[in-house]
Write a structure and sequence with these properties.
By secondary structure, the chain is of the alpha+beta class. It contains 5 helices and 4 strands, in the order ααααββαββ. β3 and β4 form a beta hairpin.
């Protein structure tokens, strides 16, 4: 249906003709009041159906944009920190790092077993100072932390036996 057909149907309808006839019979002052009323209704419809929803949408879009911008700035600020942490992460498997550092500090590992919580390590006989140095190196250089530890002293002074649960 075209606009011309719709316009023709409205003009030919009995309701339209009746409304037009009543309007023509009104006094000039009443016609003027009806025109002002129609303009007011039209302005109200434009405001409530077009202007207000558009304004609310624009404000919501601006709020979303500012939130996205803030999030982007935060991510960019923390990207460098993430890259630094990535470079500090252990090179290779945690087991290899633990074994290599143990050899460098002079500790003999009795048993190393992967665990669902991390890496379980048993040391049967080690100098306490070397064990402490090894743990500090694991934490500071490779960010491998001790989740659980049990240290028992041996009869010889300064020697210990230990169990550790390590994780990244």
């Amino acid at each position: 249906m075209t606009i011309q057909n719709l316009s023709q149907r409205i003009r030919n309808s009995a309701l339209w003709q009746q409304t037009q006839h009543r309007y023509e019979q009104c006094a000039p002052r009443e016609k003027q009041s009806l025109q002002v009323l129609c303009i007011g209704v039209l302005v109200g419809l434009i405001y409530f159906l077009i202007w207000q929803p558009t304004t609310e949408w624009a404000q919501q879009q601006e709020s979303d944009y500012l939130y996205q911008k803030e999030t982007s700035l935060w991510l960019n600020d923390h990207l460098n920190k993430a890259k630094k942490l990535q470079t500090l992460a252990p090179k290779g498997d945690i087991t290899q790092v633990v074994n290599r550092l143990a050899q460098q500090t002079g500790i003999t590992l009795a048993k190393v077993r992967p665990d669902r919580q991390g890496l379980a390590v048993w040391v049967e006989d080690a100098a306490y100072q070397k064990l402490l140095k090894w743990l500090v190196l694991l934490q500071n250089q490779h960010h491998i932390s001790v989740q659980q530890i049990r240290i028992d002293s041996l009869p010889e002074d300064g020697r210990v036996k230990s169990y550790l649960l390590l994780s990244q």
